[in-house]
Amino acid sequence: MEHKLPDGSVITLNKFSSISYSKTFKGDTRSIEFEGEAYFDVAKDPNKPFVINANGAEVKVLGTAFNLIAEHGFAELTVTEGKVQFSDLSDNESVVLTVGERGKIVDGRITSLKNKDFNFLSWKTKKLYFKQGEILKNVASDLERFYNVTVEFEDDSIELMPVSEHSFDNDDITYILDLFSTLHNLKYTIEDNKINISKVSE
Prior knowledge:
Elements: E1 2-4, E2 10-13, E3 18-21, E4 30-41, E5 50-54, E6 57-61, E7 65-71, E8 74-81, E9 83-88, E10 93-98, E11 101-106, E12 109-114, H1 122-125, E13 127-130, H2 136-147, E14 150-153, H3 156-159, E15 166-169, H4 173-184, E16 186-191, E17 194-199
């Protein structure tokens, strides 16, 4: 769901996410309260920083674009444009993140690293990409997040199987499971939102 704010900023909310803000952004900042996951495209205003309060984390920008997750004592921010100050309000630590970087706050500890997740915006783009050599454990993690399912492997060795490069554009999950099952001699069952993957008996 897309929201256009009074300053022209655009926020695309993932499901089960929420924001609250003043209709007129009075004062020296443009402040909002946020919980869940969303993509922010913030309008530039060098005289009035855009500030997000999110479950003990604070994000401060002048004009940029980024994906933010803030829920259950966890916060993660990935920058796609510009520069962002990402702060942990519990101990006043902060990091400055630029394009291609990701910051995390877990259990009161803030870290920053290069973003290597090709699918961090899959919820918004409806596209998934798996690079050559990606292991099935990581594929399953992306499928869980994208399709809101739980994936379990009958054998730990299956998790480490590498896949070939593939791209998917809003495809049904059974199409993806059928493809990887055929390529890796696997089978799967689906019950409610739980997927079990196992090897085909020889």
